[in-house]
Specification:
With about 625 residues, the protein is mostly beta strands. The protein folds into 4 domains: about 40-120; about 120-265, no CATH class; about 275-480, no CATH class; about 485-610, Lipocalin. The protein starts with a helix and ends with a strand.
Length: about 625
């Protein structure tokens, strides 16, 4: 049946009435206006930042800004609901930063939740002697160790060292690593690492540091050697034939060298701080004597400026140590109390850890490279039988300790084991003590309450010595106790011969070592040739010196307070020369030769003084 026109009209009328009742007319529309998305600033927090970090915000367009401090916020706001991400565009100097919570769809709940965490890159020493030129890699750092054997790492990382494709076992990265630290001290691995490092040393003299060359890296590229294998010595032999047919250093020699290096690493001064104004300076003078100086008066009978002198025997491998008291002014302070001590062991690592029956104490190394003068310097005054050690703690602070001080203010009794803590200023204009907090040595030492230090100077020498010139008392020569770096050069710095890591001989030269004797000393020229000095040390501080087959020249000589031989002579062209022979540890009669002249020559060579028949 078809619907009639009337039927449609019957339906349309109620519908129209309904629309009218419901406000369907366009003239009466009350729907809400569309909202505009909010503009949000994006930022977050920063922890551990030491300088400036660069950040890039990507949200449609990109913007890059630099930030400092503990928080950041980009200057341009971003529309809510946009996709965004933040990345690190430049790392701060000496740090590695990571970022979390830095991307997503922007809302008020995540606009400022990004977190940046920064950690400072640490420097660790790889020591057999210091090992330079070996490859390393950590989770974030990679490269080769520098001329003094340092690599870079972040706390908590592991490190792998490698020579070409010869890889050492991974080990926890710390401030000091030795062959003994690899493979949990496995004897075979330790021996093989020490042997191959010493064998590959560029100049075959590991006592002045170990330097690996590109030739060594190339020789081990493509090899599949296992440094933990008992058959390593046989397996590595074919590789060594390509490197001048070098023989592998013996196990006994390698082990002895590592032990010597550890003993040398102990030398110098270490700091234990009990609080503000409560510093204790422990100094190992040589391989058998120590001094400890205190800055503060404690609750017992230890006085500020008191000290302790003793002898020690130490096994670097086991940490076993025994001490003998020689003298003390610190009563129950220091290691000894009532003639006995409770130290059970001493472990050398990133810190120097002394274990007692009731706990441990960690000393930190003072010579951290923060200043060229930092570390310990000694002077022996023969007339007073007094050893003085000057310790530059930083660029502003120093400490000083005597073993037999004979000076005091007024009528007071001199304190033999005494010292100073104070501040100093060292500039091109001179050296001065600006203040002291401890002064138990009277007018001895660097500070004298009754006299000014104006006019004093300090000169740092490249052979591990400082020359301190007192305006009233003249010059004092002090050798360094710690290992030091020396840049060898022929005539000037534009002709470098390489960097070495050395330790001054604990004794130095005496008259009986050289008087009325003749020596030869070979030295390397920049072009690769070798020259030879000949020196005759005659009586009364005179003698002769000549180079190669040239005529001999008259010279004057003396041994300074550091045990170095100072030689002065003039050649036929009236050029004046000053030569210093500084005794160093290593091969028999090893020396550094410093030669300066009135014509601006400034040479530094490593050599040996070899006795020869007097001409």
């Amino acid at each position: 049946m078809e619907n009639s026109l009337f039927s449609y009209r019957g339906l349309l009328l109620p519908l129209a009435l309904c629309l009218t009742a419901c406000g369907g007319s366009s003239d009466d529309d009350t729907s809400p206006e569309p909202t505009t998305p909010a503009q949000l600033a994006i930022g977050g927090s920063i922890s551990g930042l030491g300088s400036t970090i660069g950040l890039t915000l990507t949200a449609g367009s990109t913007q890059t800004q630099n930030f400092t401090g503990s928080s950041f916020q980009f200057s341009t706001s971003v529309t809510e609901g946009s996709s965004f991400s933040i990345s690190i565009s430049s790392q701060p100097d000496g740090q590695v930063c990571t970022i979390t919570g830095a991307s997503g769809t922007l809302s008020s709940s995540n606009a400022n939740t990004a977190q940046i965490s920064c950690a400072s890159v640490q420097a660790g020493l790889f020591l057999d002697s210091p090992v330079a030129g070996i490859g390393y890699r950590t989770e974030t750092q990679s490269g080769v160790t520098d001329a003094m054997g340092y690599y870079q790492y972040l706390p908590g990382e592991t490190v792998e060292f490698f020579i070409g494709d010869l890889t050492f076992p991974a080990v926890a990265a710390t401030g000091l690593l030795t062959p003994n630290d690899f493979a949990e001290g496995d004897a075979t691995t330790v021996s093989n690492i020490a042997r191959i490092l010493q064998t590959l040393d560029e100049d075959s003299d590991p006592s002045n540091g170990i330097t690996l060359t590109q030739a060594s890296t190339d020789a081990f590229t493509g090899t599949a050697l296992d440094v933990s294998s008992t058959g390593f010595a046989d397996a590595v032999a074919p590789v060594l034939t390509t490197l001048d047919n070098r023989p592998l250093v013996s196990d006994a020699d390698a082990k002895a060298h590592v032990e010597t290096s550890l003993r040398q690493q102990l030398l110098g001064s270490w700091l234990y701080k009990e609080g503000e104004g409560k510093r204790n300076i422990l100094t190992f003078i040589d391989d058998s004597h120590y001094l400890i100086l205190h800055e503060h008066t404690d609750d017992g009978d230890q006085q500020a400026g008191s000290a302790e002198l003793g002898s020690y025997e130490w096994n670097p491998e086991t940490g076993d140590i025994s001490l003998t008291l020689i003298d003390e002014s610190d009563n129950s302070g220091g290691f000894f109390d009532g003639g006995s001590h409770e130290i059970q062991s001493m472990t050398l690592g990133e810190t120097l850890t002394l274990s007692f029956s009731e706990g441990e104490v960690a000393f930190s190394r003072i010579d951290d490279g923060s200043s060229p003068i930092s570390g310990s310097w000694k002077v022996w005054e023969e007339a007073d039988e007094n050893l003085t050690v000057v310790v530059f703690l930083s660029e502003t602070d120093y400490a000083l300790v005597h073993t037999n001080n004979l000076e005091s203010y007024g009528e007071s009794t001199p304190q033999a084991l005494s010292g100073e803590f104070g501040k100093y200023q060292w500039t091109d204009a001179g050296f001065s003590v600006t203040s002291v907090t401890v002064d138990s040595d009277g007018p001895g030492g660097l500070f004298d309450a009754d006299s000014s230090t104006s006019g004093d100077t300090v000169a740092l020498k490249p052979f591990g010595e400082i020359w301190f010139t007192d305006a009233e008392d003249g010059r004092f020569s002090l050798p360094k106790l710690e290992r030091f770096s020396a840049m060898l050069q022929d005539y000037g710095s534009d002709k470098p011969l390489g960097q070495v890591s050395l330790v001054r001989s604990s004794e130095g030269f005496s008259d009986t070592d050289v008087l009325q004797q003749q020596f030869s000393m070979d030295f390397k020229l920049f072009e690769g040739e070798t020259g030879t000095f000949h020196v005759y040390f005659g009586a009364d501080g005179v003698g002769s010196v000549w180079e190669g087959d040239e005529p001999s020249l008259a010279m004057s000589w003396h041994i300074n307070m550091a045990g170095s031989i100072e030689i002065s002579y003039t050649d036929s062209s009236e050029t004046q020369f000053e030569m210093v022979l500084a005794s160093i540890e290593g091969k028999a009669n090893a020396v550094l030769i410093s030669l300066t002249s009135s014509e601006d020559e400034d040479s530094l060579w490593q050599s040996q003084m070899l006795a020869e028949s007097v001409n």
